[in-house]
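User: Hey, my collaborator sent me this sequence without any context and asked if I could get a structure. I don't really work with proteins. Can you help?
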Amino acid sequence: MGALDEGHFNVQLENRVKLSCVELGFEREPETLAIEDAVKVLLQGLGEDVNREGIKKTPFRVAKALREGTKGYKKNVKDIVQGALFPEAGLDNGIGHAGGAGGIVIVRDLDLFSYCESCLLPFQFKCHVGYVPSGQRVLGLSKLSRVADIFAKRLQHPQRLADEVCSALHHGIKPAGVAVVLQCSHLHFPNLESAFLDTNHQGWVKALVASGSGLFENENADIWTDFLSLLRFRGINGDKTHIKDCTEQSWCPSLSASSAKISSKLESANQGMIAAVVSIIRSLGEDPLREELLGTPSRFVKWLMNFQNANLEMMLNGFAFGRMDLKPNGEVCRSKEQIHSELNLSFWSQCEHHLLPFHGVVHIGYYCVEGFTPIGKSLLQSIVHFYGFKLQVQERLTRQIAETVSSILGGDVIVVVEAGHTCMISRGIEKFGSSTATIAVLGRFATEPSARAMFMQSIPKTTFGG
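Assistant: No problem. I've predicted the 3D structure and written it out in structure-token form, which is a compact way to encode the shape of the chain:
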């Protein structure tokens, strides 16, 4: 399993194992087919039709994303480091600075992602890695990122990830010391019930972890001060006492006290889905019996069931017994109507193409007669949540919210959705920080550019970061 297990990887190389999925016929590989079968079980457990247009190819897309995101199990640090070590005159075990022995080489702000071993959701992190050269050896800078990526592309926990990167570099380049600092962000996805009750839900859990070897092995060593000083512009306090291990319980939201209680009724009802997740973990090259992974299938299924295909239209009937015209009887002069906006309504959803989460904010605008009480924000938030907690695409979500609000309010509605998609970082494209905006317009907002422009100007410029 380990990238430092030379015997394991020598056998792979002797058997001419190719790492390219294309060369091996990725679609026909047993691991891919096993994951596809497992994903079909999960979709059926959610009440979905696996032949429905839109999710027909989801099993393959999920398999491709998962195998791409865990390809580190098949890569070896030695293959990357060898051939990238270069002699540099003046480097020895004596005293030196500015590239000599004792000088630090740091590569900062490596944007990477990994899959959380506790819940199988991706998490993203910035990696800052440095080393003190020795023995007349320096490493090609890009290799620091590639080594970090090997261990990121596995089921991981932040502290172990930092330790493995540090250990691999120390053994691979034999420097005087290695330091690794990770700034990790884990999406904290609420369940449907808590989304309604907790209006101040925090969407991210953050952790700052560090690992050191050689000169950096002592966390109180002065060299840590030098290292952290060069990170102070990266939002990291130079005081090394602020670098702490993140415990397993505090890191993954699925392991919190409220989330850890998985009822026996739930497990009994979803044994097939849990077995499917076990199959996925095994197909990725992991051992489902590893202690840290024992509860992962149940936790993943519990989270996934938030998006069960319920009849949301029936639930929404209680909101729309009839059309709520926000104007008095008779004609009203348009000059007395004004655009009312409800901004930054949070939503959480699940991409039906990759079974990966996306989340963001919804902005809704509609006409309301001056002096009349606008529709309650809680009602609009409920509509947003009802359409969010199901397998979705953002374009459909935007349209459904607009049509439902229009049916209640009377026609003139504009909806803008801004979201960050996990599938934009946890697949090959890895576009960190990107966000997607979609818009739906009905009634006068569709025919009057000035009305659309007025609403757009009411949206804060910095509402959502991907």
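In plain terms: Confidence is low (pLDDT under 50) at residues 1-24, 95-100. You can pass these tokens on to your collaborator as they are.
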